[in-house]
Specification:
The chain has 104 residues and is an all-alpha fold. It is 74% helix and 0% strand. The protein has one domain. The chain is globular.
C-alpha cells in the first residue's frame, strides 16, 4: 500500500483511517505507516519527500514559522477537524503535484 492510496481512502471514508476524523489522528496513522514501511525499506521517493518536506512546505503555504507539525498548523488555520481534513487532502495533492513536476 502507498500513501496515495491512504489519502484516497481518507478522502472518501475517513472513519476507516481514524475513528474521530481528527487530523492529528491522521498524522499519527501516517507516522505509523511510515515507520512500518521504513522497517522494511519500502518507502517510495514520494513518501520520503512527504515525510521530509511536507511540514516545511505547509509552514511556507500558511506563511508561518511556528514549531508545530503539519497537522497542528492546518488545524490551527482551518479551525475545525472536518475542514482541516479536507484542506489536508488538497494540500497533499498540491504538494505531490509540485514534486512530480520537479521530478520530471
Amino acid at each position: 500500500m502507498e500513501l496515495d492510496e491512504i489519502i484516497q481512502i481518507l478522502e472518501k471514508r475517513p472513519g476507516m483511517i481514524v475513528v474521530d476524523r481528527s487530523i492529528i489522528g491522521v498524522r499519527y496513522f501516517i507516522n505509523g505507516f511510515f515507520l512500518a514501511k521504513e522497517k522494511n525499506s519500502a518507502l517510495s521517493k514520494k513518501e520520503e519527500k512527504f515525510r521530509d518536506e511536507f511540514s516545511q512546505w505547509v509552514k511556507e503555504y500558511y506563511g508561518c514559522s511556528i514549531a508545530k507539525s503539519w497537522a497542528e498548523i492546518i488545524l490551527f488555520y482551518e479551525g475545525e477537524s472536518t475542514a482541516a481534513l479536507t484542506k489536508f487532502v488538497g494540500l497533499y495533492r498540491e504538494f505531490m503535484s509540485e514534486f512530480e513536476k520537479c521530478d520530471n
